[in-house]
Amino acid sequence: MKQYTIFRYLYIYYSFVFILHIINVFLESEILNYIIGILAIIMLAVSFSGATRLFKLLGSIFIAIGGIVFFGSGQDFWMIPTFLTSNMSLLTLLAMLPWMNSVVKSGRFDRSLNQLLNADASDLGKLYPGSSFTTLTLASFLNLSAVTISQDVLNNTLRKLNKEVRNSFISTATLRGHTMALLWSPLEILVALTIFHTDVEYVVLLPWLLLIVVITFFLDSLWGRMHYKKYTYENNVSIKQGVVNRKALIKKILHLLAALALFLMLVIFFGIILDLDFIFTVTILIIPFSFCWALLMKRTRSFWALGWGTWKTSTNTMQNFVVLFISLAFFANSINETSFLNFIQKPILIFADYPLLIFFIIQLIFITMSLFGVHPIATMGILSGVIIMLLDFLNPLSLAIVLVTSSVSTVTVGSYGLIVQITTMNTGQNPYQITLKNLPYALVLGGIGSVIAYLLL
To answer: Can you tell me where the transmembrane regions are (predicted)?
Structure first.
């Protein structure tokens, strides 16, 4: 009973740490960062007992390997707290996501999406392209929240289906649709990093990225129709021609897209004015924007009722994420202080005269590193020295295409990545199941990018 009481009020402690982190993003205080690191140790200790067996195992492995590397590199013991805070922005964003979902539900946009996803689909094969495209469209405006919104809708729409089939459908349609949105978005950090490293202008890169999106969407939709057409399902929403007001449905969707477009414009504006990264800007704007949106729709009561309860429940059950991301931060930061980075760079330089092979090696490095919990941003940093050398004899545009497609493709297969973990939370699947299901897609997406990049040499 005592343990139950503790976990009922975890949201208070978590929120306190997240607020300190938000404050410190503006202050950039090393002292406050160190305090947050100490609080992160307490978060890890408190959350460990509430985490599932899988995440306890993963956390233990990351801490053990990170500890061996940390002490082996001669670091001072008192520096450990500074190695634990790099993923705090991801945890803070996770805590904020329920508020955006709540305003969407309070405005009953999820019902409209439900109708849209159900339209003219008698089997899952016909439903697949629409589900993927809906996630792609929403993710272009809403990024991470689009995944949870689409998955919530599909969980409800397909609730009568076999759980394994339902989870497979959700983890392929939504994650793949999300990556296709990230691939061309100027707000995606991986796109921005690629442009920074290669000095290729976005307007030059954009047409080729859109071409890759079109090709990938066509091939994936074709696969989805063939793979899922054998599964019929009962439509949970009556959408017969005489029943649904399609004009009202279109108006509702346009309202949603307009709100999401406004949200992104505000993110861009405040990101530039305050010089903040995209993820953090989204995090601090979610609550005020959601409240103002609910106010304009005259849905503030339902917004607070849905939001408060959902947020408390979600935050109180973040133990898996806390254990994963704090231990992963320790592991990744410890590795970054060693000569391991040089080991990653060597295979590429050996095949300098074979550009297509180099492109495939880059793709495999991104995917392999993501399977071991290394974020593609970190992998991009690891490869930065090699990228400079490759620019001496490779077309910068070709290299930029490979870097974008290779890094973004890992979103669907990074077992410890944010999107896969959100899907794990929403479907109850093992993250490795999601990874295996999407691995062929990640390889094909990266392969398309590599082939197009090679043809442009």
So the answer is: 6-26, 31-48, 54-71, 133-154, 175-196, 202-223, 253-272, 278-296, 317-336, 348-367, 374-391, 397-419, 439-456
